[in-house]
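Table S2 (text version). Query chain:
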Amino acid sequence: MILVPSIDIGGAERFTCVLANHLSRSEFDVHLVVTGHPETIYELREDLNFQAFSIQKARNAIFKIRTTILEIEPDIVFSTFGYFNLLLSIFRPLFPRHIKFIGRESMVLKNKLKMESSKLGALFYINLAKRFLPKLDALVCQSKDMDNSLKELGIHHPNVAIINNPVNVALAEERFKVPVEESYDIVSVGRLSPQKGFDRMIEILHLYQQKYDANIRVGIIGDGQEKEKIAALIKEKQLTENVFLLGVQSNVYKYYKKAKLFLMTSHFEGFPNVLVEALVCGLPIVAFRVPGGINEIIQEGVNGFSVVDNDWEQMATTLQQALTHSFDREKIKSNSINTYSTERIIRKYEELITKVQSSNKSSIQNMVVDTS
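Corresponding structure-token output:
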């Protein structure tokens, strides 16, 4: 039973739908239970056992969750949201003891807490996580950075599985073939929010133009709270002929066909799906070396380049280096498909679920599943 607060839109929501759709039906009877509203932009299989409570706040749904678990009687309850993992671990005594619980963290916790306005609230969350998260039977981290972040905060879980995010290769290849009228040398995809650092991307592109006087076109795909701020900054830096805000696009893959680079300037990530999706299309990437799996994704000079965080001058220089570098795009594509295909990643999850399901607490100590 996969238990989540939402499947509306976002990285964790998309992963939840991928997991629910692709787990083997011959091995598992899959139920997807959403405590919030049922709306989603992602497709779900018709044979999926699905229900939604339409309860806005997850903590208000705890007794409905208990009732549903008693009705379904699952062997495994799987949560894919960080705060939901904590909620379930706190209230675990309410559930039958034979049921195993697996949580999947969706963010590098240390960096997420830095964004919290209340330091007291962040401290309270950490103390709860230290005490209760280890009560889960297994915990999935998308990257080694994510696991290390938990340990640095004093959160030590004995059964950590490191499993990267999957990419739907067939979908990527199909959408990649769609013709695109407008072409961009550099493409970036993400929410226009403080975390994603699009403001410093504009500053860096301004430095790049000053340094190299190059007439490049940059397409930024996405929407969010900082849209007006980013648009104003583009105008201020006189980049209106070079940088274009394309809004939300149903098909981002088609833009990778004619692009030379994918650029990311996030302050932190969980495990950036957009990077591996670009790589699966053979598009090299340039990004700041921030926590969240960037250093595990980028092979310097092979599939892209990384830059020390917040070094704007070096990033401008690296952009020029990457734009003139001879990348083997077919090699980038094949290596990435072999690493991040949905089939390969789902097998890792099936392996983990089977191990947890068939094992007692003591026999899965220090169990690690790694995609490498």
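Notes on Table S2: The mean pLDDT is 91. The first strand starts at residue 2 and ends at 4.
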